[in-house]
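Sanity check

After download, print the first record. It should look like this:
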Amino acid sequence: MLKRVTVPSLFAPPAYSHASVVEAGTRLALLAGSVPLNADGELVGPGDPVRQAEQVIANLGDQLRAVDSDFEHVVYTDVYVVSADPAVLSEVWSVVEASRLSAGPHSSTLLGVACLGYPGQLVEITATAVIPER
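Expected structure tokens:
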């Protein structure tokens, strides 16, 4: 159903795999970007990318449960951070790495961007996950 690949001839990635292979016939969930808003639509952690990343991960967990999946079945993420500073990107990645997303480990891309959709938003994560057979 799901195979994670780390390529021996490439640099060993920290807490992610180089590729994820999903067999045909497997159900996939393509999730919209998880954002750092609470249930009332309020921004969590204004000015704090680490706190926002924690909220994004929590919201991503809710999205996954809603489609009968979980962190262990995430095959790919894009992690967007409003910053050009690699240290800030690294702080956000530490939150991703500490989450159960790294248990896979999933394939991922970490990007520094100029802005995101909500005022004050500093972090967003999009994900693709397998929906396991129950």
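If your output differs, re-run the checksum step. Summary of this record's structure: The longest strand covers residues 74-82.
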